TrEMBL record:
<dbReference type="GO" id="GO:0042372">
    <property type="term" value="P:phylloquinone biosynthetic process"/>
</dbReference>
<dbReference type="InterPro" id="IPR032904">
    <property type="entry name" value="MenG"/>
</dbReference>
<comment type="function">
    <text>Methyltransferase required for the conversion of 2-phytyl-1,4-beta-naphthoquinol to phylloquinol.</text>
</comment>
<dbReference type="GO" id="GO:0032259">
    <property type="term" value="P:methylation"/>
</dbReference>
<dbReference type="InterPro" id="IPR029063">
    <property type="entry name" value="SAM-dependent_MTases_sf"/>
</dbReference>
<protein>
    <recommendedName>
        <fullName>2-phytyl-1,4-naphtoquinone methyltransferase</fullName>
        <ecNumber>2.1.1.329</ecNumber>
    </recommendedName>
</protein>
<keyword id="KW-0949">S-adenosyl-L-methionine</keyword>
<dbReference type="InterPro" id="IPR023576">
    <property type="entry name" value="UbiE/COQ5_MeTrFase_CS"/>
</dbReference>
<dbReference type="GO" id="GO:0052624">
    <property type="term" value="F:2-phytyl-1,4-naphthoquinone methyltransferase activity"/>
</dbReference>
<comment type="similarity">
    <text>Belongs to the class I-like SAM-binding methyltransferase superfamily. MenG/UbiE family.</text>
</comment>
<dbReference type="InterPro" id="IPR004033">
    <property type="entry name" value="UbiE/COQ5_MeTrFase"/>
</dbReference>
<keyword id="KW-0489">Methyltransferase</keyword>
<dbReference type="Pfam" id="PF01209">
    <property type="entry name" value="Ubie_methyltran"/>
</dbReference>
<comment type="pathway">
    <text>Cofactor biosynthesis; phylloquinone biosynthesis.</text>
</comment>
<keyword id="KW-0808">Transferase</keyword>
Length: 240
C-alpha cells in the first residue's frame, strides 16, 4: 500500500488494513518510541475521564486494549468496560492479553465503527479514546456518536498526537518521526504504515479546533491539554 498523501486522506478500509498489519508490533513500537511515556499519557487520560469504581465505561478505538485495561482497573470488580475497534487483529491481541492478566478485568471487546456505535444512548458513565480521533474519517460525527452514548454529566478524555505551537518543538517532532519512528518501523517491514503518521497529524485539527468541534457536537465543557511539550494532547469533554 502506498502511504496516503497529505492531499488525499485514506479510506476507511485502508486505515483498517493498516491497523491489522501493524497489530503484532504496535505495543512494542509504542513502548520503544515513546521511551515508555505512553503509559503515563494513558494514565492521565484515565484520570481525566473521571471514571469511578463501579462505572460502565467505553474505550473507543481501543487497539490492543492497553488503555481499556487501565480503565478496567480504575472501575474495579464492580465496574465494566467496553473496548471498541474496527481492527480484528488488534482485538484478538487485546483479548489474549486480558486473558493472560494476573488481575481479573471486566472488559468486553467489540468489533465496530466509531462513526456508528453499536451501543444504546446514554449508556456510559465515562469514556477514553487513544490515538483514534486522528484516524476517523469524520471527526464531527465521531464526537457526536460519543456524545450520544454518554450519560448526562459524563466525561470523556481523548488522547492523541498534537501539533506543538513552538516552532522548534514542532521541528523536533518532525525530525523524530522521520529519523527514528519511520526507520524503526522499516526494520520491521512497516515503513509505509508508520510514514502515515506525519500526514495524518498535519490533517488533524489543532487543540483549539478540537474544542470547537466538541462544542458543536453538544458537549457543554471542552478543554484541550497539551502534554509532553505539546507533542501530545488530551481533549477532555463533558456531556451536559
Amino acid at each position: 500500500m502506498t502511504a496516503p498523501s497529505q492531499l488525499e486522506p485514506p479510506q476507511s478500509t485502508e486505515i483498517q488494513a493498516l491497523f491489522n498489519r501493524i497489530a503484532p508490533a504496535y505495543d512494542p513500537l509504542n513502548d520503544w518510541l515513546s521511551l515508555g511515556q505512553h503509559r503515563v499519557w494513558k494514565q492521565m487520560a484515565v484520570r481525566w475521564s473521571d471514571a469511578q469504581p463501579g462505572d460502565c465505561c467505553l474505550d473507543l478505538c481501543c487497539g490492543s486494549g492497553d488503555l481499556a485495561r487501565r480503565l478496567a482497573r480504575q472501575v474495579g470488580k464492580t465496574g465494566s468496560v467496553y473496548g471498541l475497534d474496527f481492527s480484528a487483529a488488534q482485538l484478538a491481541i487485546a483479548a489474549q492479553r486480558t486473558h493472560e492478566s494476573v488481575q481479573p478485568l471486566n472488559v468486553t471487546w467489540v468489533e465496530g465503527d466509531a462513526l456508528n456505535l453499536p451501543f444504546e444512548t446514554a449508556q456510559f458513565d465515562a469514556a477514553t479514546m487513544g490515538y483514534g480521533l486522528r484516524n476517523v474519517l469524520d471527526i464531527p460525527r465521531s464526537l457526536s456518536e460519543l456524545h450520544r452514548v454518554l450519560k448526562a454529566g459524563a466525561t470523556a478524555a481523548i488522547l492523541d498526537f498534537h501539533q506543538p505551537k513552538s516552532v522548534w518543538i514542532r521541528e523536533f517532532q518532525q525530525w523524530y518521526l522521520a529519523n527514528l519512528v519511520v526507520p524503526m518501523a522499516e526494520s520491521l517491514n512497516l515503513k509505509q504504515e508508520y510514514a502515515y503518521i506525519m500526514p495524518s497529524l498535519e490533517r488533524f485539527p489543532t487543540g483549539a479546533d478540537q474544542v470547537a468541534l466538541a462544542r458543536q457536537a453538544g458537549f457543554s465543557q471542552a478543554i484541550h491539554y497539551p502534554i509532553a511539550g505539546g507533542i501530545m494532547g488530551v481533549l477532555v469533554v463533558q456531556k451536559p
